[in-house]
Amino acid sequence: MGRVYNFSAGPAMLPEEVLQQAAEDMMDYRGSGQSVMEMSHRSAEFKTIIETAEQDLRDLLDIPDNYKVLFMQGGGNQQFAAVPLNLMKNGVADYILTGQWSKKAAKEAEKYGKVNIIASSADKTFSYIPDCSDLPVSEDADYVYICENNTIYGTKYKTLPNTKGKELVSDVSSCFLSEKHDVTKYGVLWGGVQKNVGPAGCAIVIIREDLIREDVMPFTPIIMNYKITADNNSLYNTPPCYTIYICGLVFQWLKKMGGLDEMKRRNEEKAAILYDFLDNSKMFHGTVEPECRSLMNVPFVTGDKDLDAKFVKEAAANGLINLKGHRTVGGMRASIYNAMPKAGVEALVAFMKKFEEENS
Ligand SMILES: *Cc1c(COP(=O)(O)O)cnc(C)c1O
Question: pTM here?
Answer without folding.
Answer: 0.98
